[in-house]
Design a protein that fits this description.
Elements (H helix, E strand, L loop, with lengths): L1 H16 L8 E4 L11 H4 L5 E9 L2 E13 L2 E7 L5 E7 L4 E6 L6 H15 L4 E9 L5 E7 L2 E7 L6 E7 L6 E9 L2 E9 L4 E8 L1
Antiparallel strand pairs: 1-7, 2-3, 2-13, 3-4, 4-5, 5-6, 7-8, 8-9, 9-10, 10-11, 11-12, 12-13
């Protein structure tokens, strides 16, 4: 039984390692890089709490509720996901210097899941300071792609050719916290839908903004 569990875990690791985080068919662009297009500004320039209708799927489990991202200071956020009847699935404190799980619903309170929660919202809110940056263009679509190092994370951010709209991000600090974030259907500068996929755990989180 122990051997079977080890082989199952190994299979998950090998499968997740094959996930392509880096966009394909890139050509390096040595043009001058400005800071403006590097920040997912729809989150951290709003200055107010953001409320989403949220759907989380982990394997066969399906959870729905409301998710709030609340600014608590400069690049400091409180992230709370709760059910319609008031069960708090997770409550996170995210800041440039640290991340903390304030509370987590029992079945979700597993290390590999809480690590994913932290990574998902550190990347989505952009709290980590960018230390290195390279610019590329995707040959087929002319999408503008930034290769970044921010905190412990290696990040790929894909923008429209003009660099004014964030399309997607992929990031990881270890093999186990990989995340791919897609931003869809922009309206007044904000994506109507944000889709987060964690390949290792199979967890997906879909956010639909509520006005």
């Amino acid at each position: 039984m122990r051997c079977f569990c080890f082989l199952s875990l190994l299979a998950v690791v090998i499968t997740s390692a094959c996930v392509q985080m880096k966009p394909s068919h890139l050509t390096r662009d040595n043009a001058l890089i400005t800071r403006q297009p590097l920040i997912p500004s729809f989150i951290n320039s709003s200055g107010k709490s953001l409320l989403f209708k949220a759907t989380m799927d982990i394997k066969k489990h399906h959870l729905t509720g409301l998710l709030m991202v609340k600014p608590m200071g400069l690049k400091v956020y409180r992230v709370v996901f709760a059910s319609e009847i008031g069960i708090t699935y997770f409550d996170l404190d995210i800041s440039p210097d640290s991340s903390r799980v304030i509370s987590c619903f029992g079945p979700l309170n597993k290390k590999i899941l809480t690590v994913n929660f932290i990574t998902d919202f550190r990347i989505l809110t952009g709290v980590d300071t960018i230390t290195t940056c390279k610019l590329y263009h995707q040959n087929t679509t002319q999408t503008r792609v930034y290769s970044l190092r921010a905190g412990n994370y290696k990040i790929w951010r894909s923008y429209t050719p003009k660099g004014d709209t964030l399309l997607s991000q992929s990031a990881k600090s270890t093999l186990f916290d990989q995340v791919i974030i897609s931003c869809l259907h922009y309206h007044h500068g904000f994506p109507a839908i944000i889709h987060l996929n964690n390949p290792v755990t199979g967890m997906t989180l879909s956010l639909k903004r509520l006005d």
